[in-house]
Design goal:
By secondary structure, this protein is an alpha/beta fold. It has nine helices and eight strands. A six-stranded parallel beta sheet has the order 5-4-1-6-7-8. Strands 2-3 form a two-stranded antiparallel ribbon.
Length: about 220
């Protein structure tokens, strides 16, 4: 079944909106993020208070290059975001990464800020993906705390945790329709394992752009 045009979009950052010029860096960041989730499950007290994320902070602190030297926007991102903006479809950036010392620099370096109705980073949410809490918080900030059955919410991400978070969100916001969109292989495997259609898997923003334009 073809993807339905969205009325709102929740977009991941690393690997989805921007990609590392050296894929090994992205793999390291995602591995560290996965370790954080494992630690939180094993030791519940880790969740108390604001997230500290020592490993993430250390990694971002020791890097010597500006974000524009280690990252680049994913191909086709800007035409897609511009189409959403022209059509009045709100889009939020929801990332497990840190905003301080990283995410906000990414937004500024590539001029991404004006395209997003709101941005939410790791330190702004009590629990990050694969929990749906951060996605719910983003929707609330966009005025969609109780989305109606008419809403079609795309959740676009490149990792299995993005797909899992989207599926959990779908249970929380019924009767609104949540559409997980798998961008890249890791998310594609999770989408297939969850029984989603091949139409939920894309490898190009050009495909998503066509859907948005078809909806007008």
């Amino acid at each position: 079944m073809p993807l339905p045009p969205p009325t709102a979009v929740l977009l991941d950052m690393d690997g989805t909106a921007v990609r590392h010029r050296d894929p090994r860096v992205l793999h390291l960041l995602e591995t560290l993020d996965d370790w954080c989730h494992v630690a939180a499950r094993l030791w519940p007290f880790v969740r108390r208070g604001p997230p500290r994320l020592w490993a993430h902070r250390l990694l971002h602190r020791i890097r010597r290059k500006g974000v524009e030297e280690i990252l680049e926007p994913c191909p086709g991102l800007f035409p897609f975001l511009a189409a959403l903006k022209r059509r009045g479809i709100p889009c939020a950036l929801v990332s497990n990464g840190l905003g301080e010392g990283y995410g906000h620099e990414v937004l500024e370096a590539f001029g991404l800020g004006p395209y997003f109705a709101m941005t939410l980073f790791r330190e702004n949410a009590p629990r990050s993906k694969p929990h749906p809490d951060c996605l719910r918080a983003a929707l609330a900030a966009m005025g969609l705390s109780e989305p109606s059955a008419a809403e079609v919410i795309w959740v676009v991400g490149d990792r299995s945790k993005d797909i899992r978070a989207a599926l959990a969100l779908a249970e929380d916001v019924r009767p609104a329709r949540v559409v997980p969109v798998a961008y890249a292989l890791s998310a594609a495997r999770a989408a297939l394992a969850a029984g989603l259609s091949l139409d939920n898997i894309v490898f190009s923003y050009a495909d998503l752009l066509r859907v948005v334009e078809r909806g007008t």
